Amino acid sequence: MIKRITALLLTLVLLLGLTAAVGASALDCTGDMCPLSSSYIGNARTYKFHYSSCRYVGQMNEGNKVYFESRDEAIDAGYVPCKVCRP
Ligand SMILES: [Zn+2]
Predict the structure, then answer these.
(1) Which terminus of the chain is more exposed, N or C, with fewer CB under 10 A?
(2) What are the pLDDT tens digits along the chain (87 aa)?
């Protein structure tokens, strides 16, 4: 019984920690230091999307960056995968 409660508490703490981490990372998303919470980054001007590690992302104008959490999300939004990083 005690073991069970401990496990439950641990899960809760873990969840809370995760939420806090995600919230914090979303806040200090500035320039090239943007955290890797978004794996895909689209260019609002060319309608192409890249892996966040692609070299083209670094050249992209900050105002043109669109963040996607999944490949499907980017494709649904009408974005085309980059031919260099092939996301
Ligand atoms: Zn790319």
Answers:
(1) N
(2) 767 656 665 665 665 665 555 544 444 555 444 455 679 999 999 999 999 999 999 999 999 999 999 999 999 999 999 999 999
Q: What percentage of the chain's residues is helix, strand, coil (to nearest 5)? A: 50, 15, 35
Please give the distance, rounded to the nearest whole angstrom, from the Cα atom of residue 51 to the centre of ligand 1.
6
Nearby residues for ligand 1 (ion, Cβ within 5 Å): 50, 54, 56, 82, 84-85
What distance in angstroms lies between residue 27's CA and the mean position of ligand 1's atoms? 25
Length in residues, the chain: 87
Ligand 1 center from residue 22 Cα (angstroms)? 25
- Residue 70 DSSP one-character state: S
Residue 46, φ and ψ in degrees, nearest 5: -95, -10
CB-facing half-sphere around the CA of 2: CA atoms within 13 A: 0
